[in-house]
């Protein structure tokens, strides 16, 4: 029987330089009626090019964590740094992919891909050329003139990913990007998105409720506790068969079930 590496849940120092660092991060939401403490004393480092999955109970603060990395939220305590610099506001270096594609229905695929460049008043020609190259590379070459309503759900999510990549982000934040898709499309897109991220060497942080997705895509899986949430444990995911197995191959690999059972038990304990 295949053995899995023991994981004591303790985060180890990175072997590569840190790309994203959170130190003592706390985040509370304030409304007229109440204060909601979402995160407390969150500390972690993510290396450049690393793929991290975040799992945890519903409402524990996973999306909040991504918003802090993206600069859409500012921590109430502690600091968030990217490449050693304190995050202050949003940046085109950080891309976001969400559960729903949020494509503009009245713009064709190419128009959707270049909208970010237009808003940021970047070179339109350059953005258009980049968009066309990416469409070609990722199998949507013939669809530049299609409207979103003429595409399948999986194709629309692929366009949403390409739209993010046009800005050449260093960091990709993925907030349940496959959860609205049917099972077969979800598996196919996981394969494609994984390959694209590895091709580009992008640092990726995936929030998901699907433990199988978390384990099959990530270098490390972070488990969050319930609210006020902190990082409960970190599980490095390694396979004897090699480090560049696709998500599909990882699911068939010997250590996969061991990881699944260990993390599932933790999630059950809350
Ligand atoms: N804008 C807001 N104002 C007040 N409270 C908020 C706001 N956004 C989130 N919260 C609260 O903060 C907590 C964390 O929310 P968040 O969306 O980050 O959790 P999550 O782990 O991503 O949830 P889920 O797994 O259900 O998607 C929740 O209790 C939520 O109700």
Automatic annotation (TrEMBL):
The UniProt keyword set, sorted, is:
ATP-binding, Nucleotide-binding, Transport
For the ABC transporter domain, which residue ranges apply? 22-251
* Keyword set includes Metal-binding: no
GO MF annotations, alphabetized:
ATP binding
Entry superkingdom = Bacteria
Pfam families per the UniProt record, alphabetical? ABC_tran
**Cited SMART domains:** AAA
Query: Does the UniProt entry include the keyword Nucleotide-binding?
Result: yes
Q: Which PROSITE patterns match?
A: ABC_TRANSPORTER_1 (PS00211), ABC_TRANSPORTER_2 (PS50893)
**Protein name from the UniProt record:** ABC transporter ATP-binding protein
- List the source organism: Cohnella soli
